[in-house]
């Protein structure tokens, strides 16, 4: 039986009778989350991305989750990768982290209580502050039928899993309402392929590759691995890690184009949803892995340079 259609290229229908949101506060900034899926912190460092460095100093932070779906849910709660501060209560950290949105959005007097009870950033931005809300995602596990597609004006699973550049032409900004964009970027996800690379040239790994053969076909059921897995030799793992670093080098150029099209004063956050293992302690990939390198992620934020 063919897998379900996952809704690529279909924005959420906007009811014609939909009431406009509240009038946005004066000076409210556009907000853009760029999530490089699976990108390790040290792959970012090794790539030395110059455009990304112009946004600010990259920080070593920690993801709340080890794989895509819960990590994005967490990001959309407004909880960005954390700094693992000692001697701090979780609830205090959450509140402080939320109050940082006053700086990020340029909105005075934000109160944590206003994001209750949904605890969902798009809901608050759209209904509380009058933002337009948009998501473009690369991973089928985040498709528009999933629970995180809530209070988005548009939500699109991109036709290819690895083409951030294709997102840029779909972005638009208005003078009337600030915009929030979530961009889930897949070039940094296995098989770390650039958009112009022939899929026939992608690395072939027994077991793992079967999962991703169907990545751009929207076939969920085929994404369940059925073959016995072999582990990889060191040379292959080093090549894979080099491919992720090369993906960051390439994406730095795409980010330069993104920065060129963003209105001035847009607040940009670039991070990853989780890391990736390249053979450390006999692990590969991410997901059912409890290892420092699967939680360690890069994080940088600031006003678009
Ligand atoms: Zn992910």
Question: Mind explaining what this structure looks like?
Answer:
The protein is built from ten helices and nine strands. With 305 residues, it is of the alpha/beta class. The chain has a seven-stranded mixed sheet, with helices on both faces. The longest helix is centred in the C-terminal third of the chain and has 28 residues, at 234-261. The chain starts with 30 loop residues before the first strand and ends with a strand. Mean pLDDT is 89; it is low at 1-7. Zinc ion binds next to loops. Zinc ion is lined by residues 37-38, 67-68, 273-274.
Q: Can you give keywords for this protein?
A:
305 residues; alpha/beta; 10 helices; disordered N terminus; binds zinc ion
Radius of gyration: 19 Å
Helical/strand content category: alpha/beta
Order of helices and strands: EHHEHHHHEEHEHHEEEHE
Percent of residues in beta strands: 5-15%
Helix content: 25-40%
Strand order of the largest sheet: 2-9-6-1-5-3-4
Provide the residue-averaged pLDDT. Answer: 89
**Biggest sheet descriptor:** 7 strands, mixed
Task: Summarize the structure in short.
The protein has 305 residues and is α/β, with parallel strands linked by helices. The chain contains 10 helices and 9 strands.
């Amino acid at each position: 039986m063919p897998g379900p259609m996952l809704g690529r290229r279909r924005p959420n229908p906007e009811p014609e009778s939909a009431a406009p949101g509240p009038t946005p506060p004066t000076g409210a900034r556009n907000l853009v989350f760029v999530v490089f899926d699976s990108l390790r912190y040290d792959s970012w460092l090794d790539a030395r991305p110059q455009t990304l460095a112009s946004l600010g100093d990259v920080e070593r932070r920690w993801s709340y989750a080890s794989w895509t779906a819960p990590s994005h849910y967490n990001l959309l709660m407004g909880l960005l990768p954390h700094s693992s501060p000692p001697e701090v209560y979780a609830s205090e950290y959450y509140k402080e982290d939320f109050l940082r949105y006053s700086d990020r959005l340029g909105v005075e007097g934000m109160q944590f209580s206003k994001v209750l009870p949904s605890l969902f950033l798009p809901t608050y931005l759209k209904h509380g502050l009058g933002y337009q809300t948009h998501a473009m995602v690369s991973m089928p596990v985040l498709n528009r039928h999933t629970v995180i597609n809530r209070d988005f004006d548009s939500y699109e699973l991109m036709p290819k899993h690895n083409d951030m550049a294709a997102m840029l032409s779909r972005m638009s900004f208005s003078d009337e309402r600030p915009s929030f964009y979530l961009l889930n970027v897949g070039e940094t996800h296995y098989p770390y392929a650039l958009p112009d690379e022939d899929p026939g040239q992608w690395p072939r790994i027994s077991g793992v590759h079967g999962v991703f053969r169907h990545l751009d076909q929207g076939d969920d059921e085929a994404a369940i691995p059925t073959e016995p897995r072999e582990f990889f030799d060191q040379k292959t793992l080093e090549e894979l890690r080099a491919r992720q670093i090369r993906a960051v080098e390439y994406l730095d150029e795409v980010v330069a184009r993104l920065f060129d099209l963003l209105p001035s004063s847009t607040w940009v956050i670039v991070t990853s949803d989780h890391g990736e293992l390249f053979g450390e302690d006999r692990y590969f990939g991410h997901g059912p892995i409890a290892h420092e390198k699967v939680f360690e992620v890069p994080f940088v934020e600031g006003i678009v340079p």
